[in-house]
Amino acid sequence: MATSGAVLGLAAVGWLAFWLLLRIPLVTFTLALALLVAALMAPFTGALRRTGLPAAPSALLAVLSLAAVLGGIGFLFGFRAASTMRDLTRPLTAGIDRIRVWAIEGPLGLDPQQVADIRNEIVSWIYQAAPSPTAGARMAVSVLGALVLVAFLVFFLLKDGDAMWSWLLERVPGRRLDQVDGAGRAAWDTLAHYVRGAVLVALIDAVGIGAGLLVLGVPLWLSLTMLTFVGAFIPLLGATFSGAVAVLVTLVTNDLTDAVIVLVIVLVVQQVEGNLLQPLIMGRVLHLHPAVILVAVTTGGLLFGIPGALLAVPVLAVTYRVLEYVRLHPLDPVGTGPGTREATAPPLQGVLDRGAAAEVGH
């Protein structure tokens, strides 16, 4: 009876926490992004600390370095980001029209009215997705505010991550201290592996497809390369969408031959990603079936849009790793042994740095 009550209580607390996360999506996604960025920059901060630089200057230098890199990318490409969809809108529409004509007059011989209705719905969605200049300006202000908040959060996570974790552990009962500590380390290790692997895979995808578009002389190769890089962070669906857009745009701006070549390049890059890069880079993190990943991405997208699709897989991977750790490291039923370490044990020595060191050890 007591166990059932405890389970119901935990379920109620979990549902309340989930409801609160839905009510404040900006804070939720900002914190999630800060954790991802902190996991990405932890090795850099750890290297600075090993040279003797104190925690605060190391964290500040890491944040400033990341801001400089992102600022350079924004200076080179960011001004095109808001207009990327507008750049792609007209070629995409023309490509859809060519497919519509082929579907009606080609071997399929589909009903013209049905094809026209489908075409109009798709084109309407494309134009709605492309932000207007005013909406783009408002979006830029919101994004800038969120990035400032992310920068502060990343600084404090890199500077005081070990103290924060120690503070949490001090409030855990001594019998569960080792289990909670180990589960937290497993979660951080999984998150660190995921974000660094995802960035590497996205870069390889963008370079491979972008180079092909540049060689073929596709006018919008830069916008398509940016779309490929961002889409690579959404497993399965993102690469398919960005590849289809690249083929359609090439079909309109160049010709059918170039579109077929781009299709081949996209398929080759995706095959290399799926059969080589994902197993080598992400295999130790995502011990998940593709069907599970697809359901997670779809659910996250339906609940939170693009941010939800981006965060669905890392959240799922971290949750799975924590549950596996708890399953493999149950509590000592007698209440003795290593699981009874006092909650007042010395603070963790650099939890962020140890996460990076654990990755190197792999």
Written description of the protein model:
One of its GO terms (biological process) is transmembrane transport. One of its GO terms (cellular component) is plasma membrane. It is a multi-pass membrane protein. This protein is mainly alpha-helical. The chain has 2 domains: 25-160, no CATH class; 171-343. Helix content is 82%, strand content 0%. The protein contains 12 helices and no strands. It has helices spanning 2-23, 25-50, 55-105, 112-129, 133-169, 177-216, 221-231, 237-253, 256-282, 290-304, 306-328, 351-361. Helix 3 crosses helix 8 (237-253), helix 6 runs antiparallel to helix 7 (221-231) and helix 6 (177-216) crosses helix 12 (351-361). The chain starts with a helix and ends with a helix. Mean pLDDT is 74; it is low at 335-362.
**Total count of strands:** 0
Shape: elongated
Strand content: under 5%
Largest pleated sheet: none
Primary descriptors:
single chain; 362 residues; mainly alpha; 2 domains; 12 helices; elongated
Structure summarized in a few sentences:
It holds the Pfam family AI-2E_transport. The chain is mostly helical and 362 residues long. The protein has helices at 2-23, 25-50, 55-105, 112-129, 133-169, 177-216, 221-231, 237-253, 256-282, 290-304, 306-328, 351-361.
